[in-house]
Specification:
208 residues, alpha/beta, two-stranded antiparallel ribbon, 40% helix
């Protein structure tokens, strides 16, 4: 990560678009539980507003490879997520059931089969004041589902979870903010009255 360039770009955007946008600084860390010292050292001088944590690899294999080779890819994925949420210094769990993106390889998972594992992840997240996000990227592809599923968002609420964020996970300018209002309606449907933004890694509620 080239933080010098990143900070330069952020400062440029803050100055250039201050009349139209609130520009904040965040990062998504992959497998942060495996690199706690490295990430801590790299980020100690960076004043981030928001840190997402995610699992994109298991045992040095990309999730697509795990989906193709493992006999139990969903179980392995949720087990790795639990390890992450127990240790990592993060604010929000990103796209919690990401493995379903590879449904063409392994099929969509049965929520009830893995509810016990998901519940343990969510309980630990709530205990550590870590939120979850509604990630709308799945609605832009053949999956046609949010990440995580509505069942998980409802379970998080039922367990007492409150810190819910919404993100479009945009990799192109055109995708920024896509399906945001649909995600807000899903949050309301699941019983949430607030979604959250972050400043200096402090969650701030916004009424919906």
């Amino acid at each position: 990560m080239n933080f010098n360039k990143y900070l330069k770009d952020i400062n440029y955007c803050k100055k250039t678009y201050s009349n139209d946008l609130t520009v904040k600084m965040g990062i998504e860390l992959c497998e942060p539980h495996l690199f706690t010292h490295t990430y801590s050292k790299s980020l100690q001088t960076i004043k981030l507003d928001f840190i997402l944590g995610s699992v994109h690899n298991i045992n040095n294999q990309k999730l697509r490879q795990v989906a193709e080779k493992s006999d139990a890819p969903h179980r392995e994925y949720f087990e790795e997520l639990y390890k992450m949420v127990c240790i990592a210094d993060i604010d929000v769990l990103a796209h919690l059931d990401l493995m379903k993106r590879y449904h063409s390889t392994i099929g969509l998972y049965d929520f009830h089969e893995f509810k016990w594992a998901i519940e343990q992840i969510l309980k630990k997240a709530i205990e550590r004041n870590i939120g979850i996000e509604i990630n709308t990227s799945g609605l832009r592809v053949n999956l046609q589902q949010i990440l995580p599923s509505i069942n998980i968002v409802k379970l998080y609420k039922d367990l007492g979870g409150e810190i819910l964020t919404i993100g479009s996970d945009s990799h192109t300018p055109e995708a920024v903010g896509s399906n945001i209002y649909e995600a807000i309606n899903i949050a309301k449907e699941c019983g949430f009255r607030h979604i959250f933004k972050f400043e200096n890694r402090i969650p701030i509620p916004i009424e919906v």
